[in-house]
Amino acid sequence: MQIHVARNSAQLGIFAPEEITAGLQSGRFLASDLAWREGMPSWTPLGDWSEFRGVGVPPPSPGATMAVAPAASTIPWEQGKSLGSFFATIQVAIMNPSSLATGRYAFGDWVVFCYFSVLISLPFQLISILFYGNKNAQLGELLSRSGIPTLAQAGQQLLNSPQPPLVATLVGAILGLAIAPFVYALFAVIHWVGQRLFKFQVSVERTTAAALLATSVIAVLMAPIQLLGFSFVAQMTFSALLFIPVLAIYFRIFGAATRVSPLVQFGISCFVWFVLCCCCCVAPASLIGMSAAKAFAH
Predict the structure, then answer these.
(1) What is the pLDDT of residues 239-268, one digit of tens each?
(2) Cα distance between the two ends of the chain
(3) What does the alpha-carbon distance between residue 37 and residue 22 come to, in Å, rounded to a whole number?
(4) Confidence at residue 186, expressed as pLDDT on a 0 to 100 scale
């Protein structure tokens, strides 16, 4: 099975085990070089691999020094900030996510990247608001025609509720997009806590930057769905059909950028959201139920 090798955040390539053995013996590879292959949860130094342990040139004497210049990132966005590098990074993230392991992932760089995706998503959002009206009204009409009394009543309540002014809706949408990168970063910090619980040593900066990258890619891919706003059913149906492919793209990008298996990152995310749901929903509901039971008992 082919093995990915990286040094100082720069990917050296993909090699067969025999090539790595020969490279360790010749000095081409170092025991400290990070390596990963399909099925591994995270990148691991070559010196810790059982098949390569003890293979390689002897380490330098304590007095010797070796200057190794950090290799440049191969991610277009980290090589230069422009609209072209933005779309080139989107393409790389979708087509070749393994190359994302070379990134530096400075938080500020990827906040700017996320704002690029916000600016691209904004016109689609505005078109939906200006031409297709209020989503609550569309949902209310759909529910009122459902034939189920409870849903029909909820639909009528939505139809009868006062509609917010168009200006307020537009301002709300713009403000929501303006703070979006920091909301994404907040949830990434929570995910980082989950990573630490499972002993994955990924820095909080790299985790949040990787989440901003992955979320930005998804935002750009999903933005055109706003054009289906003329039909609430069509929009929700199309979104549901894309849910699993989009989820796979997100965790492939996020896993590659954090150098942790996408499946592992998905599992951590499920765990984190399960805990959050228990803390935010089940626990308060249980407390309210216990309080009500005590009140009735007295």
Answers:
(1) 899 999 999 999 999 999 998 999 999 999
(2) 69
(3) 18
(4) 93
Contact in structure between 31 and 46 (CB atoms under 8 Å) = yes
Show me where the domains of the chain are located: 1-71, 80-287
pTM over 0.70: no
Q: For residue 146, what pLDDT is reported?
A: 74
Residue for token pair 């080139």: 88
Among 76, 115, 67, residue whose Cα is nearest residue 96: 76
Name the burial class of residue 284, with classes exposed (0-12), middle (13-18) and buried (19+) by CB atoms within 10 angstroms of its CB.
exposed
For the chain, give me the number of helices (H) and strands (E)? 11, 4
CA 221 to chain centre: 13
Using DSSP, state whether 200 is helix, strand or coil: coil
Confidence of residue 154 (pLDDT cuts 50, 70, 90): confident
Residues in contact with 136: Cβ distance below 8 Å, sequence separation at least 6, in sequence order: 158, 161, 163
pLDDT digits (tens, 9 = 90+) for 158-195: 767 777 676 776 777 678 778 889 999 999 999 999 99
What residues does 44 pair with on adjacent strands? 35
Q: What are 208's two structure tokens? A: 């949040």
